[in-house]
Amino acid sequence: MRARRAIALGALLAFVLPTLAFAQSSPASPAPKSPAAKSAVSQSVVSKSAGETGAAPLTPEDTPKIAVEQAPEMPEEQKGESIVDAVAVRFFAPETGGAARPRFITQRELAFEGRITARLDGEEDEALDDRHYRSALERRVAEQILAEIPGERNLTNADVTRVARELEKVLATRLGGAEALAALTRSEGIAPSEVQAMMERRARAAYYVDRALAPLLNPSESQLRDLHRLGKHPFKSAKFEDVRRDLRWWLIDERLRLAELSFLQSARTRVTMVYVPAD
After folding, report:
1. Cα separations in angstroms, 265 against 27, 100, 169, 174, 270
2. Residue 64: is it exposed, middle or buried by C-beta count within 10 angstroms (0-12/13-18/19+)?
3. What is the pLDDT along the chain (279 residues), one digit of tens a residue?
4. Going by C-beta distance under 8 Å and a sequence separation of 6 or more, which residues neighbour residue 7?
5. Residue 127 CA from chain centroid, whole number
6. Which residues pair with 92 in a beta bridge?
7. Tag placement on the chain: N or C end, fewer CB within 10 Å?
8. Which of 157, 155, 160, 182 has the alpha carbon at shortest distance from 171?
9. CA distances from 178 to 72, 113, 181, 185, 203 (A)
């Protein structure tokens, strides 16, 4: 699995990232707080029916136009060393502190999130390809930027932990249960603390979206009943009153995924991504 992962990631980063370089970066600009930008994300999230299972993977025509650079090659004297993990991509945006404060995504993280994306698409590991890694990469970049934009001052660590736990439950449900998620983390060498950090990042992104871009964390009773009636969720055989809480977090997770993709579309000219080639 590890060898196949390295080959797949190498092929992905050699092919997918250049396809994102459709436009050069424009001068840095602040997070989208204008009514038009806020409306664009809000309409994309709210206009989706409560029963949809999420946005389809972006086509090449829809792919965010992110400037891509080539990182320096590894020094010759380091090429014989055994590497447990390595940086696959680094990126930066004004919201994350610009070029002076890049963010990093490792090969292991990208492999893990790519496999999650494939499972959520209803496909097994054998069908894992560049579109799954590309979708995972897009969502990760958007999610991290959203999570780092200054948001609610009264937000506490307890708030973040509470939402993170609920989002982790939704992810486990989507993957087939807590054991399915645990097996996936073990196969990629992902520690529980790394899963927790991933979920807390999503929680912070959700709080920012809810506060600044589109209503997210408090769906109405009618929206939950519509979702239950449409049946596009794993709780369709249960009574509404018994699964109201589960439906709420399922819908929150759906809307967060849509908001992340919409945000990245609006922020594409502010993001610079650097491919770090594997040796």
Report:
1. 16, 23, 28, 25, 10
2. buried
3. 554 455 455 555 544 454 343 333 334 334 444 444 454 455 545 444 444 444 444 444 444 444 444 545 656 665 555 557 899 999 999 999 999 999 999 999 999 999 999 999 888 777 788 899 999 999 999 999 999 998 767 789 999 999 999 999 999 999 999 999 999 999 999 999 999 999 999 999 999 999 999 999 999 999 999 999 998 899 989 999 999 999 999 999 999 999 999 999 999 899 999 988 766
4. none
5. 20
6. 272
7. N
8. 182
9. 40, 16, 5, 11, 19
Q: Using DSSP bridges, classify how beta strands 67-70 and 87-92 pair: parallel, antiparallel or unpaired.
A: unpaired
